[in-house]
Amino acid sequence: MRRASILLALAVTCPVSLAAGQPPPETRPGKSPPAVTDLQAADTRFDGGSSITLRWRGGEGAVRFRIERAGPEGGFDSLDVAGAGSSVYEDGEATDGVDYRYRVISIGGMGGETASAETGPVRSSPQWFNGHYTSVAIALLVFGGLILWFIRKARKGIHLFVRKIAGLEAVDEAIGRATEMGRPLLYIPGTGYIEYISTVASLNLLGEVGKKIAEYGTQIRVPVRDPIVFTVAREVVRGSYAAAGRPDAYDPESVHFLVENALAYAGAVSGIIVRERPAANFFMGFFGGESLILSETGATTGAIQIAGTDQTTQLPFFIVACDYTLIGEELYAASAYIAREPLMLGALKGQDYTKFILVALLVVGTLVSLITGFDFRQVLETSGH
After folding, report:
1. What is the reported pTM?
2. Which residue did the predictor score with more confidence, 93 or 340?
3. Fewer beta carbons within 10 angstroms: which end of the chain, N or C?
4. How far apart are CA 337 and CA 16, in angstroms?
């Protein structure tokens, strides 16, 4: 009788205890989150292929999403897992030309799962044009078009205005002085390597100076630090004499290699300046700390000195020690300024107008952003630029 009473009491109290220990409905084990909606799969835009992008909405309450993919004939296999709050996934392992179907499984905190509707078949393919660089393509077309247009104008003989640059106007004066004094002209193509833009600009200018040297019958000295620059400089000077109609006057020893160490090179060139006392010194190209050594030594001999570099830290030394100094882009424009060759002039004018357009766009964009609060940066970021 007593055992029957105990069993009866347990039967009455146990259901109440179990109900009190259950979690609330929203975290109950096995509760499934809502399925994602509007699932779309499409070939990824502006890529090289092998990629399909999925987008969906909803799925609130899911702690993660399992991406599943099915091939042409197989069932769905797990592909990857996306975190909570995700709404985009890119499948970068697709094979171009193969149809795939996708679905997204919403997974709840307690393991419940809800599958979305599957997508239709979609396949990946490469695109020949990356639309993210549309603005770059437009800029290149505008830039190239301007250059071609100005080259055409220059070839027709239409005058293209280029403002006077005092340092380049003095080139004839420097060469004439060297000719009258019977002393050589010293040309230093910088201490940089051949891949430096300033070195290339300096060699272009050397070609134009070499033509005038050949015409006047003046001696030129071109000591070089880098072996590759030496080879190019020698050919440039040789070509200048040929272009001037005096190939026989070219002296192979006028362009010579000194030493690769910059300070040793500066010391060797200073010795040449002191011993041979050139009437004119040209320092054009890339320079480091040796700029002051060279220009100060040249200044002590009384030579007319013309310098040009794009190294802003060396410009003060050239400005105080030389008669004329080409600053930054003036060095790049030097060869076009002196030669007046249509191709160079067209490129120079095209670059100037492109810069003007870019500056105008920056000014207009800044004003529009200040007045209207329009965020151009956000537009560029969302468009992938």
Report:
1. 0.66
2. 93
3. N
4. 98
